[in-house]
Design goal:
With about 350 residues, the protein is an alpha/beta fold. The protein folds into two domains: about 60 residues, DNA polymerase, domain 1 (Orthogonal Bundle); about 290 residues, Aldolase class I (TIM Barrel). The protein contains twelve helices and 14 strands. The protein has a ten-stranded mixed beta sheet with strand order 3-4-5-6-9-10-11-12-13-14, sandwiched between helices. Helix 1 crosses helix 2, helix 5 crosses helix 6 and helix 10 packs parallel to helix 11. The longest helix has 17 residues. It is elongated and about 70 Å long. Bound molecules: S-adenosyl-L-homocysteine (SAH). The site of S-adenosyl-L-homocysteine has 19 residues, from strand 10, strand 12 and helix 12. S-adenosyl-L-homocysteine binds next to strand 10, strand 12 and helix 12.
Length: about 350
């Protein structure tokens, strides 16, 4: 059975027409579904001025949602991790972060179950890619987060694609989901409150740019030179630093949105003063912001290497060098320490990512 989150206005119009009903009901149906923070129940959606035959057809053919929150873990700092079970199989992790503003929250969603990218310091990729998420399954993460925020008296005001998966490898579904999440009359989050994060898939950056969604872009660079990058990010062999940066510049020129460069600091791998200087060189004349992410330990990587977070002083030095070169850079540490359990990584990423929207 399909869920209302599987449809956009056009596809529901087509479906209604195929069933012999007036397509014009589609927009109202979806609007009333998206009106409740977590999405309305099917009876609420049908409680409008619809004929009995259409009501019966909808009851028999569609459900409201295709996922549910299986587990919820709240840390002392307010971070809430949701494990969402999917009717089509598997589960994804989604994280809600309280924002700097008392009434707001930021969310972090997944685009795939597992990941094929193989970044050596990332837990999501350890068991490879299980499957792509469908657009509706991504939309439902947003709805669960919005519901959870509402229960806490907060408004979900931003969303980052920094959970599991590589959004550029499931871009059709990611774009379709963004259109529903941000779209007028639907999720209405606002395009500029959404950030898509990529390991640096150049054609994906181009396609996102051409989709004219007006969303933000984050690029997980992690090293200023190809040799270092290829040791920790396998896709670095395919997409070179210079090509990725050129794509980032084109993204900025076309969309006017300043990209964020994500840089996970790994002791003795990418945290030297020379690398900070090289990163600053790379950003010369480019207004990208740098988010420094202290490595969050996940045990041995796929290669067997064990990474460590650099000492405080070393991370501060890296930041100072960037700032001395007028690069806009921040890093942020986790607050609270009782949620490390499986979600430390997502949590840390979300905290970092909300910074560049402040
Ligand atoms: N595939 C996308 C989005 C998911 S990862 C991407 O690569 O951008 C989101 C961010 O979290 C990336 O910058 C990733 O490198 C970072 N990250 C992954 N594992 C981490 C860890 N153990 N510690 C700190 N940051 C990590």
């Amino acid at each position: 059975m399909r869920a209302l989150t599987d449809y956009d206005v056009e596809s529901l119009e087509i479906e209604l027409g195929a069933w012999g009903f007036k397509p014009t009901h589609a927009r109202n149906l979806l609007q009333s579904f998206y009106a409740a923070p977590g999405g309305s129940e099917i009876e609420q959606v049908l409680g409008r001025n619809l004929g009995l035959a259409l009501q019966a057809k909808l009851r028999e053919s569609v459900c409201a949602r295709q996922s549910k929150v299986d587990h919820r873990h709240e840390s002392t700092d307010g971070t809430i991790k949701l494990l969402i079970g999917l009717n089509r199989g598997g589960a994804v992790e989604t994280v809600l972060m309280p924002w700097y503003h008392p009434g707001r929250a930021a969310g972090c969603v997944s685009s795939q179950i597992g990941c094929a990218m193989g970044c050596d310091f990332c837990a999501s990729t350890r068991r490879g890619l299980e499957r792509d998420l469908e657009a509706g399954e991504i939309v439902e993460q947003f709805l669960h987060l919005r519901q959870c925020a509402a229960e806490k008296g907060r408004r979900l005001t931003s969303l980052v694609f920094m959970g599991m998966g590589e959004p550029m490898h499931n871009l059709d579904n990611v774009i379709a989901a963004i259109r529903r999440i941000a779209g007028p009359g639907l999720g209405m989050l606002g395009w500029k409150h959404i950030t898509v994060s990529t390991v640096g898939i150049v054609p994906g950056i181009e396609r996102l740019m051409d989709a004219d969604l007006n969303v933000h872009l984050a690029i997980s660079l992690h090293a200023p030179d190809d040799a270092t990058r290829q040791k920790i990010v396998p896709t670095g062999k395919r997409w070179k630093v210079a090509d990725i940066m050129a794509a980032g510049r084109r993204f900025e020129a076309k969309t006017g949105r300043i990209p964020t460069i994500e840089y996970t600091l790994l002791a003795g791998v990418n945290d030297s003063e020379e690398q900070a200087v090289l990163l600053a060189d790379l950003l010369e004349g480019f207004r990208a912001h740098v988010n420094l992410i202290p490595y969050n330990s996940i045990g041995p990587g796929l290669s067997g290497a064990v990474y460590r977070k650099p000492e405080e002083a070393r991370m501060n030095r890296f930041l100072e060098i960037l700032r001395a070169r007028r690069v806009v850079a921040h890093f942020r540490r986790t607050r609270g320490d009782d949620v490390n359990a499986a979600c430390g990584q997502l949590r840390e990423m979300t905290q970092v990512s909300i910074l560049h929207q402040t």
